[in-house]
Amino acid sequence: MTTAPELHARGLRDHLAPALRALGLTGWRRTFSLPDETHWALLGVVEQHLDDRVRYTFDLSLVRKADWSAAGRPGLRPDPRAVYGVEAWRARIGEVLPVGTDIWWEVLPGPRWLVALDDSIAAVRHYGLPELIRRVERDRTGTGETYLSPGELEQVNAALLAVSVPRIQRAELADKQLLLTGAWTRADSVARTVLRGVAQGFLSADDARFRTVCCLDTLGRELWSFDRPAG
What we know:
Elements: H1 4-22, E1 26-28, E2 31-34, E3 39-50, E4 53-64, H2 65-71, E5 89-92, E6 105-106, H3 115-141, E7 145-146, H4 150-162, E8 168-174, E9 177-182, H5 189-203, E10 212-216, E11 222-227
Parallel strand pairs: 9-10
Antiparallel strand pairs: 1-2, 2-3, 3-4, 4-5, 4-6, 7-8, 8-9, 10-11
């Protein structure tokens, strides 16, 4: 029987790497990057070998090419799995998924051994890659000022959790708008109602930096917009 480590190696070579290249990433083995003139937007496969099995996840990293050159580090490009101290941003992929916590995939022998690979590719396609692209653009343009501290955001998220509404992943200011991002869908009427109340709370503070609260899904698409009441 083919072992889990053998399946893992085959899966990375024959399934994961081609799928990442089809998404526009370039690279080989366990490190990939998005083509960009000014930034290294990177994805790395992180592995843990545990006796007769292997599990893996992804590290995401953003490094300005000018910073990399100035640091005089060896190698053509950074390794997204390493910490250099010059990163503009880095995260484990679980941090940008709706669960918001560390997540690992494991390829196991059996007829459904490709399920974990397909799931991890979907995580990159729908969450990891869009977040990398968003981070590159935000760093390039200097937009997207963080609005809430991590502690303040967790207080709001605790209230959302109590009514089974997905958490706010980001709260940022841009163009006189407060942008709230989360794993919501336009068809979720409960989330819309609850987030309207959250937006009204933010708007009642009369913060001059924004006049509108926009709720976005994790791909950056606008779902709902709430304006400050007139008068």
